[in-house]
Amino acid sequence: MRSRRRDQAFHYARDYSNFEVKIMIGMQSQADFDPAKAEVFAEGILTALNNGALCLMVSVGHRTGLFDVLRTLPPATSHEIAARAGLHERYVREWLGAMVAAGVVEVEPTTDRFVLPVEHATWLTRAAAADNLAVFAQYIALLGRVEDDLVECFKKGGGVPYDKYPRFHAVMAEDSGQSVLSSLESHILPLVPGLDARLAAGIRVLDVGCGRGRIMNYLAALYPNSRFTGMDLALEAITFARQEATEKRLQNIEFVVADMSDFDSTAPSAAFDFITTFDAIHDQARPLHVLKGIHRALRDDGVYLMQDIKGSSHVHNNIAHPLGTFLYTVSCMHCMTVSLAQGGEGLGAMWGEEKTRVYLQRAGFRSIETYQLAHDIQNNWYVVRKQDQEPSQKDNPDDQDRYGLQ
User: Fold this and answer.
1) d(CA 282, CA 122)
2) What gap in Å lies between CA 194 and CA 139, rounded to an integer?
3) Burial class (CB in 10 A: 0-12, 13-18, 19+), 399
4) Which of 28, 179, 200, 266 to pair with 375, CA 20 to 30 A apart?
5) How far apart are CA 84 and CA 72, in angstroms?
6) What DSSP line would sit under 57-93, residue for residue?
7) What pLDDT is stored for residue 216 in this prediction?
8) Which of 167, 383, 368 is nearest to 277 (CA)?
9) Calculated CA dihedral for residues 83, 87, 88, 90, nearest 10 degrees
């Protein structure tokens, strides 16, 4: 027996198929219209509407601490939950309604007591640490804030500048805490053999596009003999990073506000032993200039560690990507448009591994190794060096032509 939602989807598809007009979709005409396919599609859109709304409420639950409170409580009323969280009950009650409808929170019908199953808390609370998926739901609300501006860009061109995203660096800092900080010592630094020993002995490190500097501040505390520099375009982010460094009494780190568009000519020559970027290249105004600057700033025996979005440069290869829709959306509504707002290239988050390799080679790098980490389904990790590549790592010359970088 069909659910109400399936009946509604079929109703839409049936009415559509009764139109007298001839519909052309590519080479498909009204005679080829498949009501069953339309029904499945309509049901998927209805599901997307519910899931989109759920993301907003998950973000609210994370930011208000409601998930964390629910994790500690036995079945409780909305008044008890609100009191424990220090929030207004009427809002908490409506939020709980959304959570129950989505199957996130369970309710006892006779007592109106709510409980967050431990299996759900495992993925939605701060106690879950790197497994807390509620962090990423914040992006939906953050991106929705600029929809009006983005619609104007669709009509007139240009881009949406960074200052339209007041919470972006805060959310990115949490994101980095999930995908980077939690695994920095155990999985990420070991990608470069001998790096731990070099950092302990003392080397110079640069992070390009450092944001709020959480990663560099962490490393500076962990390796006091090394010197660290973080660079970012956003004054707000650099101010936060400097304040955190001061609070931690770090003496071996500096943060610099810098526009990296001309880094290919302004980067200090052979100044750093280890350079990093964490999901920072694809939204630069001039990404190739930044990569050339990194090549220039890196010493001959140095290593560049690059975290960037995992995907293909060819959209048909991303159909089965587990986060494909999400990543293209983040790209369209942030990464691509902030680059265009600076008169930049608008490379976008889904530039793909093929194009990434071409850009790195064009910047002068010859050794490019790609790694994936089990905990990070969103990113590739590239270990990049100046010396010649092994034959197995040569890039496809066809890609050089395709991306206009010959």
Assistant:
1) 32
2) 36
3) middle
4) 200
5) 10
6) HHHHHHHHTHHHHHHH-SSB-HHHHHHHHT--HHHHH
7) 98
8) 383
9) -80
